[in-house]
Structures are given as structure tokens and as C-alpha cells.
Inverse folding.
């Protein structure tokens, strides 16, 4: 092995550690709330808050806490949206079919 080979191996090792230094969770994430396919609100997951979604079919209370969003109360008959639990990763969704509400996590 030559000196240049050792330099190349060292550089490759350093570059292989770069992804570990970049924190993908630091990207801003939002909860996009749609009613019947129309965006009604975009909520930042880094801010804890509670929001009521009222539709002609009923209402859902949506809460953001510790970077995750969940439906904490709903007056739909099956309450599947509440049982879904909290979501926090991009691409995850909560749907309340009777109220035509969809909550999706998107990255910035």
C-alpha cells in the first residue's frame, strides 16, 4: 500500500460518516389537513397545539404534541381515526372516512 492508497481510504472513511452528521429529523415537518380533498390547514409539527376540524358530517379534534399529530376526539361512529394513534413520519396518514378528513405528514 502506498501513501496515496492510505489517504484515499482515509477520505472514503470520512465521507462515509457524513450521513450520520446530517440529522434528517431536523427537517421541518407539517401536518396537512384536508377535508373532501381540499387543504384547510397546514400545521407545523414543532408547535404543540389543538385544532378542531368541523365538517358537515361532524367534527374531529386534532392535537399536535411532541412532534406528532393525532385525532384525540371524533364524533364519527367507528372512531378508527382515533385508534390510529399519533403519526410523525413523512408519508403517514390518518383518515376519518365518515367526515372526509385526511391528515398527512409532509416534509418541508
Amino acid at each position: 500500500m502506498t501513501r496515496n492508497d492510505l489517504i484515499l481510504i482515509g477520505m472514503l472513511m470520512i465521507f462515509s460518516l457524513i450521513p450520520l452528521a446530517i440529522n434528517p429529523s431536523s427537517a421541518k415537518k407539517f401536518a396537512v389537513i384536508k377535508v373532501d380533498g381540499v387543504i384547510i390547514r397546514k400545521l407545523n409539527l414543532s408547535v404543540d397545539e389543538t385544532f378542531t376540524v368541523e365538517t358537515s358530517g361532524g367534527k374531529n379534534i386534532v392535537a399536535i404534541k411532541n412532534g406528532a399529530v393525532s385525532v384525540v376526539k371524533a364524533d364519527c361512529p367507528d372512531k378508527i381515526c382515533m385508534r390510529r394513534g399519533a403519526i410523525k413520519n413523512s408519508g403517514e396518514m390518518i383518515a376519518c372516512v365518515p367526515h372526509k378528513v385526511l391528515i398527512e405528514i409532509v416534509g418541508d
About this structure: The chain has one domain: 25-107. Residues 90 and 106 are 5 Å apart (CA to CA).
